[in-house]
Every structure is written in C-alpha cells, then in structure tokens.
Design goal:
alpha+beta, binds adenosine monophosphate, binds zinc ion
C-alpha cells in the first residue's frame, strides 16, 4: 500500500530514484542521500509503517527481517567485521523526519559511543 506523499513509499514504487543496494520481497535498502559515514544505508519495509514501534506491534517478523537485511548490507559493504551501527530515529524529537520506518546502517569510520 502506497501512502500518498510518503517519500519512502515513492522510492519503493520507483517514483523517486534511489541508489538501491539490496532488495528482498518485503524490504528495500538504498544509500542515504546525505551520508554521515562511508557506509550509510537505509533499510525499509516496502509496506508503510510509520515507526519501529508501530512495526513491532503489527509485524514483528518483518522487523526481524529489517535487522537481518541491515546485517547483510553491512557485510556487503565490508563493515560487518569492523563494526556498524543500526539506528531507528523515532519521533520528531529524536530527529525522525521521514515517517516511514527506516534503519540507518552506519559504518566505515570510527563510531564513538555515546554518539555526538
Ligand atoms: P530520519 O531523520 O531518521 O527520518 O532519516 C531520514 C533520512 O533520509 C536522512 O538521513 C536523509 O538524509 C535521508 N533521505 C531523505 N531523502 C532521501 C532520498 N531521496 N534518498 C535517500 N535518502 C534520503
Ligand atoms: Zn511510506
């Protein structure tokens, strides 16, 4: 189901272009347009769910698939051994700007903790 005016639904349908790095039946992974690390990929479900909390409630197996796909993206970019970070910004106060749930996969540089 495409939600009108959702940017990431438009990437799923191809109406907005993206650099796709990986795809499964139910997920899509593409490079962030404004990368914060050498590897910065977004992994999304093709179906529209606004947040990780909504997805966990509705389809926990799809959430698990997002995590498996995030790992596969990291392995594909060769950062699974050096380490990578998976971030789900949730809510505008946490910086979520696109309300179609997405895992940020970050790697390829030193990632301090706590994040700056
Ligand atoms: P968030 O702030 O967690 O909602 O993350 C949204 C992310 O989407 C940001 O890191 C943006 O750089 C990224 N973004 C926005 N538009 C696009 C686009 N057309 N293609 C790829 N990434 C995008
Ligand atoms: Zn959407």
């Amino acid at each position: 189901v495409t939600v009108q005016d959702c940017l990431f639904c438009k990437i799923v349908t191809g109406d907005v272009p993206a650099t796709v790095v990986r795809e499964s039946a139910r997920t899509l992974a593409f490079r962030d347009i404004n990368p914060q690390a050498p590897t910065h990929v977004l992994v999304i479900p093709k179906d529209h769910h606004p947040t990780i909390a909504a997805l966990a409630k509705t389809d926990a197996e799809l959430l698990a698939e997002l995590v498996r796909e995030a790992h596969a993206v990291a392995a594909g970019d060769g950062v699974d051994e050096s380490g990578y970070r998976v971030v789900f910004n949730t809510g505008s106060g946490a910086g979520q700007t696109v309300f179609h749930v997405h895992a940020h996969v970050l790697g390829g540089r030193g990632l301090g903790w706590p994040p700056g």
